[in-house]
Each structure stands twice: as structure tokens, then as C-alpha cells.
Amino acid sequence: MQPLEPWGPPDGYRADRATPLDDAGAGEAEALLWRVADILRGGLDVSEYREFVLGLIFLRYASEAFDEHRRELATHLAAEGVTDELVDDRVEERATFDRAGALWVPEYARWSWIAARAEGRSVARRLDEAMEALMRSNRTLADALPVVYRRGGMDDGRLAELVELVGDIRFDDARRSPKETLGDVYEYFLAGFAQVSSTPGGGFHTPRSVVRLMVALVEPGAGLLYDPACGTGGMFVEASAYARATRGPDTDLRFRGHESDQRTWRLARMNLTVHGIDGRADVRWRDTLKVDKSPRRKSDFVLTAPPRDTSPTIWLRHVYENLDARGTGCLLLPNGFFNSSSKARAELLERDLIAGVIALPSRLFGSPKTSASLWVLSGDKGRQEDRRLAERRGEILFVDAREAGTMVDRSQRVLTQADLTRISETYHAWRGTASAQAKGLAYADVPGFCATEGLARVRQHNYLLSPSRYTHPETAGRPTPRGVRVDLASLTRDLYSLFD
């Protein structure tokens, strides 16, 4: 399978963080991940792995970022003619880092200090103290780091092995600094721990190819992006990379998010710091549906994958209540919602808020029982004269992408770059967005893959929204023998639920 391409046009600005680890780097990261798991096995519950390991990777990242900033500052001062002695003093001044908005790392939180003492006793105490010192020294990290090593009950020998392994992360890649490499490793480990999580489908981490598709559908630029169930912050990281790649490094894209699980919230805070967007993000530890009843301001973009044990109806309503009049949102929802709660679907459809429904292939989340779809919501499906969009009021785009993707192992399917391009360009051609206009894309129904339908026909189908019902006209219009119509109607609903 070809790796996902960097965001951005070939001749335009590309985000520094847009390119994932190459095959060699990913292979080393995977080997490292399993070595870490071997050390932790038996000493910790699987659900605790991620905080222990990602906390260490973050400490290493913070030190690399600190050292990189010191080197850049020293080079700048030397170019201005400052003497070596004064340079050495200036690069250790806390105020210099504060003015630059860079992380300040106290001496006993620096990786070199920790690694040099990893063979002695009290490794857990030193790690906890390093976390506490980083949080005291940087307001943006308040309550964000895991102080878990002493209470975790792991012996100093195993902790020392972990410190040594994380210290050995050195992937030879001229395109990345050590800081950037560690950012990639952090993201890779998030995905790796999601696969071994006890939560079905890795509930705290949506697969990267699905996140990239959601970002490609929404095309976030300047404005506010909201994720009411942000998990570890993957939507924000990918959206930031997209915005920087397509609009330049100074794009004004800000983020607002909530996460109800405290451990996951801490991982998100670290993830945003590692990717350099913590200063533009307001991510809070809270249960969205309990506390966020009336938003202070509407969001220009919404991207979210709500918890699977909650009502899709509630989340859909929450999204459109938080969406700006001309905003766009995309939700990842279970396919069971296609054929349940007709009243909720009818409300959304009659308000003309649903722009598109995209059925995704099975096994994207590992389990064959987990099937999902993407729902694209739009506050205004009209032309929006300044944007010159296609007139789509009273219409819905259906995409049946169940045959997309490729199996990377016996249980896991991944959307390829070609899949992402085909699906997202189909939507943008249908909507007539600026990106589609620039590429000269024109929409046309493709039997078996995509179709646009009016609200009148959806009403005839009792507001059922399974894409295959509309993209496969040869089966949707097949006559039913008299005498068994009622029974077959019920069976058809069940079958669509199973197939989708």
C-alpha cells in the first residue's frame, strides 16, 4: 500500500509535520513499540501502558525541543557578535524562552539528567518530579502530564529499561529534526496502543486514514474548529497540518475541544504540544453533553467521532447547534443509525442540514462487527454567492465506499490515498467548492458508488439513509411480489443494516 501523501499542492507550501514516518522509520517504531510492551507486560494493565510510555516520549521530546531552541538562539546571538561566554549565559535564561513561547525545561527534567541517573534507585520518583517540574515551569502544561510512575508499582529495573529504550530513539532522516521524529513516534505509539486497547476498535483513537478523509471533506482553513469528543487530539493535529499545507504556516485556525476521560485528555494535551498547536487550542476535561449546552460562539468547522455507547441523535443535534450558519461538520457514526430513529433523521433532513452520507468499508476499526459512516452537515447548502458553490438545497449526496481500502493484515483495513482522493473529490465536485473549481471537477452520479437524491425521494423511503439504497438503483427499484410486501419490507431494513 502506498503511504498517505503529504497535504498541499506539489508546488505549494507543505506542512513540516505532514509527512508520516517512512517505511524504515515505521518499522523501527513498531519494533520499539513491541519491545516496550515486553517490558511492561505483567507489570501494568494494558490500559496504563500509554501513559507510562507516552509520558516518557514527551519528556524526551521536551528536552529535544529545549536543546533545539538553545542551539538556534546560540547561532543567532553569535551572528550578532555576542561573545561565547555571554552566549552560554543567555541560552540558560528562563526569560528568553518565555518571550519566544518555547518550553522551559528545568535541569532535573532534562533527558540527559534523567538518563544519567536511570541505573540508580528512585527512578519513578525522578520521573514524577520531572513531570511536576515541567508543569510548574510551563503554564500551558498545567495538569497535562502523567505523574504516575511512583503509584504505578513498577520496579526501578523495568523503568530504567524503558528510559534506555526511549533514549535510543534515533531514526536517520535528514528531513526531520529529533524533535519532529519524536512527534511522529508519539503519534505512531498512540495508534499502536489503540490497537491493543481493551476498548472495542480503540475507542480513544480514530484510524489516521479515516481522520484524514474527514479533514479532506471539511477542508478547514481560518476560523474555529470544534471537536466535542476530541480523544487524543488527532482531528486537531491532522486539521492543523492540512491548513498549514494549503494556506501557509500563519493560517488562523484555532481549536476547541472536550474530552471526558482524564487520562485521554492528558494524552491530548501532550499531543498538541508535541505538534506545536497547544497555543491555539482550548481543550478541556469535561463531559460535553452535560456541560456544553449553549456555546459562546459557533464553530466554522466541526470534526468528531463520538463515543459509540451514546446516542448518535444527541451528537448530531449538538453538532448543528454548534455549527456556524455557513459552517461544515463531519461526524463518524455507527451504521445502525441508518435504519433507526426515523424521527431524528426526519428532523435533520427536513431542516436540510445533511449534505452527504458516506458508507465506509468494514474492518477499518479492526472488528468485522464495527461498521461506520461519515455524515457531512452543512449550515447552508445554497450557493453562498461569494463562494459560488453549487446549489444543493433539498439534495443529499450518497456515497457507497464499502469496497474501498486495502487489508494491511488479517483484521485491519486502511483507506488508501487513492480512496481518500476519490471520495473527497466526489463530495467537493458535488458541492462545487473552491478546491473542486480549481481542479475543474464536475459532479456526475456513478452507479454503485455515488448518487445525489432529493428530499422527496428520501421521504418515500421513510428517511432511510443507507447509501446503497440510492447508489444501486437496480436493487432499489426491484418489484416485490404481491402477498409478501410487508414481510419483505421488514427483511429489507434488516438486510441493509447488516450490509452497511
How would a crystallographer describe the biggest sheet? 9 strands, mixed
The CATH architecture of the largest domain is: 3-Layer(aba) Sandwich
Compute the separation of the termini in Å.
25 Å
**Could you estimate the helical fraction of the residues in percent?**
40-55%
Rg is 25 Å
Shape: globular
- Structural class call reads alpha/beta
Main sheet strand line-up: 3-2-1-4-5-7-6-8-11
Number of helices: 20
Q: Could you characterize the architecture of this molecule?
A:
The protein is α/β, with parallel strands linked by helices and 500 residues long. It has two domains: 174 residues, Ferritin, CATH 1.20.1260; 247 residues, 3-Layer(aba) Sandwich (Rossmann fold), CATH 3.40.50.150. Strands 3-2-1-4-5-7-6-8-11 form a nine-stranded mixed β-sheet. It has a two-stranded antiparallel sheet with strand order 9-10. It is globular and about 75 Å long.
SSE blueprint and pairings:
Blueprint: H1 23-40, H2 46-79, H3 84-90, H4 94-100, H5 111-116, H6 123-137, H7 156-167, H8 178-196, H9 208-218, E1 223-227, H10 234-247, E2 253-259, H11 262-274, E3 281-285, H12 288-291, E4 299-304, H13 312-322, E5 323-334, H14 342-350, E6 354-359, E7 372-378, E8 395-400, E9 406-407, E10 413-414, H15 417-431, H16 434-439, E11 450-454, H17 455-460, H18 467-471, H19 473-476, H20 485-499
Parallel strand pairs: 1-2, 1-4, 2-3, 4-5, 6-8
Antiparallel strand pairs: 5-7, 6-7, 8-11, 9-10
